[in-house]
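Quick one, tokens below. Sequence please?
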């Protein structure tokens, strides 16, 4: 009997050992996933010495071909299929501190080394990061529950179950009304719509009606424009130290209109990147390109125009990648990306798309889209129609473009070989003294028989000469220079010329006796042909129209216009990222790792770039905007790092959901952002209550799995707009130049131009936050306190903070005190005669529900305390109610209560 028992024990022991051995063999044979197992170790422990920045011993783990290449030792560090002979493994396991890797850092653990061994044994196969692979259709999980409202909830519910969590119940109607209103239109919903939703019987149907109404509201575009303007680094000034004004608010209005019209996102991007390339581009398509004219420009004296032109181009590259593609690309300016598959020269290939635009960092900000008034626009239409019918479509388009954009011209700031001349402030214009000479280099004179130049002079008696090739070369033209006030355009006839030549301007004036006096100012030069169609009926009339339009001075906005072929720029790799050390010349192109998304036959210009960006195979554009919209509604993106979806960004909490929504956006929704937003806000996930239990805090403190609705502080814009709406003072006025609501004296300091903050009058001081004038060096202070972006560069994500300054703003900022005054008046007007009823009405106006008894009691006590104080010290009343000669203690006390109510945590928070 004992023998059998021992025999059984041996058998069991053998079986146990067999199971252990099998499990070890199975784990060793299990395919190693490069992205989730190998790449994280490389990024954390290896890449700083063996990657894009450094390649110690000639070894790099950034790209597959580099990892398998022969290094300085004369042999590869990785031999696929043979970990024992691979130098990488030998170095990782070495006991010699001078040999072991990572050098002078903690050794890798046995599990990490085992991962490398198994990976090499299995062939050292590389893997692509999930975000750089095309979006594919995702199967929706079949987990079912009565809680689920749409596809989003299936993905959320699956993750909740995996983490042993349950979703929260639906929030009450008042909470949902406020949440949806703040998220969709950034302010309180209209009173009629609110009442309709709160009193409707069918909750689900009423909620959808509410959502549809909010999506259709013109306020939708204003709210969502604020998000986009951070990406576009929109501001009303140019930036840098001088930070002069920039007339570019038309772009902000274009964004608002685009969101309201639900412009398909692929078109939204295309028009901003390459609107000027579209056939017969409209004014609005040109204005869309101001997306990249929002880059800063430097008007400071003595700066190098080319340096800051290049800086603007680099900014356009970085904004495109970070803002539209959630990728950190800026570091590739100096070296290959340390973590992601982008090589150093690929930065400059991408830069070549933006390097051929006409802007040159000059004070005038050319090129500008000239926006004619109605009468002038009719003249332009008539002129272009006549040219089409009597000359040619080609010349009609050329003249239209010249009259609308002022291009192509040669800016006077690009002249050189100056004698008795100077470029004013190095970026204003060409200034001539007497006996001055300047060169315009490499002018295409083929088929040229006219020069038009824009100039200003108040000195009579001047003579100008135009010479070819050298200052005393063949004379092209000679003429008297008419004097007069302001700038004017002057045509000079030339004999038909051929070839590309340097052209020299010479000026003499016997009346200019002061050798240091600047007597002529030049703005630009246009070498072209004379007005066409001579001898045709209506020629003189239309020629006059041309000159009338050219000499007019309409409102204008900076836009993107491409250089003509005869003045195109070359692009070079900058050695170590410095523009003054150009290396090899490169042509336009996208990174090799993402080139599969480039449509066949796409042109090598910004239009081709837009085609690549919006191609459905591009893995980043749709994912980025889906992630961004999710962050706006849920507080945190599916990938938390909106600025970086690469290997160093945060891992997605719900990657399958992100891909599902991205696929839907491109295919089912036809790039409609409103349909995508509706899908999100109609989900049960969005409609949950935000209360947090101890279990939730323990299992999911940061709400990564959405077992409850998020609870986050309102944005700077939402806060201001909500308060203005509640107090009844929010102006419904839309569009137009930026306004200046109250701010303290001394915020602005503009030594270059003496610009001042002039507080707007009337309803303009109560406009929505999106219309507030934005000066980069001194942004509106109360909005900055609530994390408003400075907009010096692209801001892909606002990091929410919680500081005492925020409470000081809403309690003490005069703009918020003024709102409290108006709110108090509204409470007294609409709440009846009883103080408790007035307070209750105020709470209902903000929160859509009755106030709880304990809260009402506290606020009533505050009122009585303030009332007693003001009756005891009536002189204090004028501090809170300046200009109130009646010294109404009741009104003053209600302002104190209104101010406190506007600072309640539940009021400044989206629950």
């Amino acid at each position: 009997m004992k023998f059998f028992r021992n025999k059984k024990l041996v058998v069991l022991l053998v079986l146990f050992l067999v199971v252990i051995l099998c499990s070890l063999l199975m784990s060793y044979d299990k395919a190693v996933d490069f992205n989730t197992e190998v790449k994280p170790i490389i990024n954390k422990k290896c890449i700083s010495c063996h990657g894009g920045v450094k390649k110690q011993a000639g070894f790099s783990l950034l790209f597959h071909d580099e990892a398998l290449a022969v290094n300085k030792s004369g042999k590869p560090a990785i031999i696929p299929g043979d970990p024992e002979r691979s130098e990488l493994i030998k170095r990782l396991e070495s006991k010699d501190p001078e040999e072991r890797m990572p050098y002078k850092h903690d050794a890798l653990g046995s599990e990490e080394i085992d991962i490398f061994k198994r990976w090499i044994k299995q062939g050292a196969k590389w893997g692509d990061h999930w975000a750089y692979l095309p979006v594919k259709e995702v199967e929706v999980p079949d987990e079912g529950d009565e809680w689920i409202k749409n596809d989003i909830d299936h993905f959320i519910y699956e993750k909740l179950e995996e983490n042993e969590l349950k979703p929260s119940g639906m929030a009450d109607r008042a909470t949902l009304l406020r949440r949806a209103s703040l998220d969709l239109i950034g302010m309180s919903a209209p009173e009629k719509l609110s009442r309709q939703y709160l009193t409707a019987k069918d909750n689900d149907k009423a909620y959808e009606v509410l959502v549809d109404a909010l999506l259709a509201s013109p306020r939708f575009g204003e709210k969502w424009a604020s998000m986009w303007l951070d990406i576009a680094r929109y501001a009303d000034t140019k930036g840098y130290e001088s930070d002069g004004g920039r007339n570019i608010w038309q772009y902000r209005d274009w964004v608002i209109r685009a969101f309201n019209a639900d412009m398909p996102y692929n078109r939204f991007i295309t028009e901003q990147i390459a609107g000027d390339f579209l056939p017969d581009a409209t004014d609005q398509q040109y204005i869309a390109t101001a997306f990249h004219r929002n880059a800063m420009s430097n008007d400071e004296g003595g700066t190098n125009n080319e340096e800051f032109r290049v800086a603007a181009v680099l900014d356009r590259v970085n904004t495109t990648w970070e803002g539209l593609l959630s990728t950190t690309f800026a570091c590739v300016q100096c070296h290959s990306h340390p973590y992601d598959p982008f090589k150093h020269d690929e930065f400059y290939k991408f830069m070549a798309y933006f390097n051929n635009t006409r802007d040159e960092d000059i004070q005038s900000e050319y090129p500008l889209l000239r926006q004619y008034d109605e009468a002038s626009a009719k003249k332009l239409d008539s002129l272009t129609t006549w040219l089409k019918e009597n000359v040619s479509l080609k010349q009609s388009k050329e003249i239209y473009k010249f009259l609308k954009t002022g291009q192509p011209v040669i800016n006077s700031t690009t002249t050189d070989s100056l004698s008795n001349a100077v470029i004013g402030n190095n970026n204003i214009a060409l200034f001539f003294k007497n006996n001055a000479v300047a060169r315009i280099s490499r002018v295409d004179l083929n088929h040229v028989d006219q020069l038009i130049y824009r100039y200003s002079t108040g000195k009579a008696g001047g003579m100008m000469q135009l010479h070819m090739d050298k200052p005393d070369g063949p004379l092209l033209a000679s003429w008297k220079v008419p004097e007069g006030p302001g700038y004017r355009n002057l045509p000079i006839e030339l004999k038909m010329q051929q070839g590309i030549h340097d052209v020299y301007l010479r000026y003499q004036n016997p009346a200019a006796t002061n050798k240091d006096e600047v007597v002529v100012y030049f703005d630009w030069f246009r070498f072209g042909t004379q007005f066409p169609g001579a001898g045709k009926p209506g020629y003189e009339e239309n020629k006059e129209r041309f000159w009338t339009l050219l000499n007019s001075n309409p409102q204008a906005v900076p836009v993107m216009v491409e250089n003509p072929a005869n003045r195109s720029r070359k692009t070079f790799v900058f050695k170590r990222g410095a523009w003054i050390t150009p290396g090899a010349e490169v042509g336009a192109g996208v990174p090799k790792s993402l080139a599969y998304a480039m449509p066949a036959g796409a042109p090598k210009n910004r239009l081709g770039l837009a085609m690549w960006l919006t191609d459905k195979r591009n893995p980043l554009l749709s994912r980025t905007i889906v992630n961004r919209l999710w962050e706006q509604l849920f507080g945190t993106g599916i990938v938390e790092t909106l600025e970086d979806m690469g290997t160093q960004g945060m891992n997605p909490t719900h990657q399958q959901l992100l891909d599902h929504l991205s696929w839907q956006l491109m295919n089912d929704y036809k790039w409609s952002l409103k349909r995508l937003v509706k899908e999100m806000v109609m989900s049960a996930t969005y409609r949950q209550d935000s209360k947090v239990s101890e279990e939730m805090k323990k299992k999911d403190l940061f709400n990564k799995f959405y077992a409850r609705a998020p609870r986050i502080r309102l944005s700077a814009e939402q806060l201001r707009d909500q308060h203005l709406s509640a107090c009844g003072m929010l102006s419904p006025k839309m569009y137009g130049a930026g306004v200046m609501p109250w701010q303290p004296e001394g915020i602005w300091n503009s030594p270059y131009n003496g610009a001042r903050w002039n507080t707007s009058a009337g309803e303009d001081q109560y406009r929505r936050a999106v219309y507030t004038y934005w000066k980069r060096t001194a942004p509106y202070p109360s909005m900055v306190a609530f994390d408003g972006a400075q907009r010096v560069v692209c801001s892909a994500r606002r990091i929410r903070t919680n500081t005492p300054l925020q409470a000081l703003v809403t309690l003490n900022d005069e703009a918020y005190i003024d709102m409290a005054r108006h709110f108090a008046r509204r409470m007294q007007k609409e709440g009846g005669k009883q103080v408790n009823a007035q307070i209750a009405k105020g709470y209902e106006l903000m929160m859509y529900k009755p106030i709880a008894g304990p809260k009402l009691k506290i606020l009533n006590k505050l009122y009585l305390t303030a009332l007693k104080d003001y009756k005891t010290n009536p002189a204090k009343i004028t501090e809170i109610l300046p200009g109130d000669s009646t010294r109404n203690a009741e009104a003053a006390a209600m302002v104190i209560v209104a101010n406190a109510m506007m600072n309640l945590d539940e009021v400044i928070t989206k629950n």
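The radius of gyration is 34 Å. The chain has a mean pLDDT of 93.
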